Every structure is written in C-alpha cells, then in structure tokens.
Amino acid sequence: MRGTFLLLFLFSACRPALDTPTYPSFSDWSDTADPFLTTTTFTTVEERLSIDVFYEGDATETIPIDGVSTHYYIYENTYTELTSSDRLEGVESARLVLGGSPWWGGGIHWDSPQDISDWTSFTLGFKSTSDVFANFDIGMTGGEVEVRLPAADYGWVADGEWHQLVLPLADFADGGVALSSVTVGLLLVGESAEPNAELLIDNVFLTKE
Fold this sequence. Notes:
The chain contains two helices and twelve strands, in the order H-E-E-E-E-E-E-E-E-E-E-H-E-E. The protein is mostly beta strands.
C-alpha cells in the first residue's frame, strides 16, 4: 500500500504545470456555444436565425459567412472591430472602435439573395457611453431597395447600459425591402468624426412569432 502511495506521489509531482487556458475569439466561436455561458435563455420553442456575427448562442438556422458568397464588410476601414468581455450572451461581444472618419459603417452581404420572409423580428443588442452613438441607422437591402431605420426609434440610448432592440421585419418591408430576396442582411451606419469612440454589439439574431 505504501508503494502505491509513493508511485502516486511521484506521478503527481512530475506532472507539468497546466497552461493558461485560451478561448476562441467571437469570430471563431460556433453557434453551439455552451448554454451555461450565456446570460440569455434560449428554448427549442423559439426559432432563431443567426447571421454568423455578433452572436455565439444556439440557433435553429445559420447563414454562415464564408468570405466567398457571404461576407462581413467594414466599409472603407471606418472602424476596427475588437472584442469585449462585457456582453449580453456568450463569452464576449464585438467592440467597434471608430477611426475618426466623418461616417462609419459595416454590413453583412449575401451574393445570392436570401429568403427571410418567414422571420418576423430582428433582435440586436448595443451598448455605448459615447454621444457619438446617440443615434445610428440599422438597415437592410432586398429587391434592390435599401431601408434604414434609426436605432433611437426602437429604444436605443447611449447611456452606458445594454439595450436589446427588437425591430419588426415588417418595418423594412413597409419601406420596400423584399424580404424574399435580401442581399444585405444587416447594415449599420452612422456619422462621426470622433476617433476611438466605442460601440458594443451582441446577441444579434432573427426570430419568428
């Protein structure tokens, strides 16, 4: 028995020190993130469509960004995208840092039009302390018609708190967007000449009623 204890002691003493754990960036995290890491509740009753950015949780459907026919563009390098541990769900949020241009913008582009007409709402989470982001537009393009909706019209305030906005897709359709033929699934654009202003984005997905 003593020999067994000695062998166990020697084995334990020779074990190498554990490395510091590393975690994937938000762009590498899959849509099957551990639900225990999220701060929002996802149920199988609710269907969710992920556009493959700004969301780490479970989804019943995903339109993956492959860089070939589906793209995430930062327009003219008007901002840099980093990450933040301050989040609504998952392990981190996207942190947009402005470069000082008089405007900023980015978007999700689909070369082949996507039919999202079965979906009813667009959920997006934002947080900022900068007056630069007092308002900005959330847009979509479908059937060659682009519609931009002011975030402030849906409860957005740049007060340093997270705000979960819910935009009815009908509001885009009322402006002329063909939801059965969407080529820009998400457009974010605003005006600013202030460098280093920051906007956090998280928990972005589409749902059905």
